[in-house]
Amino acid sequence: MKPVLDIKPVRVPARTVRCIEGGKGLQITAVAGTVWLTQANDERDVILTRGQSFILDRRGRAVVYAFKDSAIVVGPAGHITAADFAVPAAWSTAA
User: Fold this and answer.
1) What is the pLDDT of residues 78-88, one digit of tens each?
2) CATH fold of 4-77, please?
3) Alpha carbon distance, N-terminus to C-terminus of the chain
4) What distances in angstroms separate CA 16 from CA 23, 31, 34, 62, one per listed residue?
5) Do 33 and 69 form a contact (C-beta atoms < 8 A)?
6) How far is CA 89 from each of CA 15, 75, 86, 92, rounded to the nearest angstrom?
7) Residue 38: left if φ>0, alpha if ψ -120 to 50, beta else—which one?
């Protein structure tokens, strides 16, 4: 497991999209804000708020959309929980 200080969040501004290609097995953790997550060939929609994670279980593209200013961490399953990660105070107000 990487030390928490080595893990950098990805900011996802409100109403923007981040795509993850070939991410099967990766864990998406919301560390601030609220995001919507969907995967190729998957009928499910997943909503993550601060402290929640989801492990991608499909091949192909995954799309993360921010309802409001958000921050996510992407990495191997089990690498982090939002409780382990402190985000800057300005980001916490997005949650």
Assistant:
1) 877 656 665 55
2) Jelly Rolls (2.60.120)
3) 26
4) 19, 16, 12, 14
5) yes
6) 21, 23, 9, 5
7) beta
Q: What type of residue sits at position 78? A: G
- The number of CA neighbours under 13 Å toward the Cβ of 17 is 9
Contact indicator for 85, 61 with CB cutoff of 8 Å: no
**Closest to 27 in 3D by CA, of 55, 47, 5:** 55
Place of tokens 């928490």: 4
What b-and-e string marks burial along 57-69, b requiring 16 or more CB atoms within 10 Å of the CB? eeeeebebbbeeb
What is the model's pLDDT at position 80? 74
| Predicted structure pTM score | 0.80
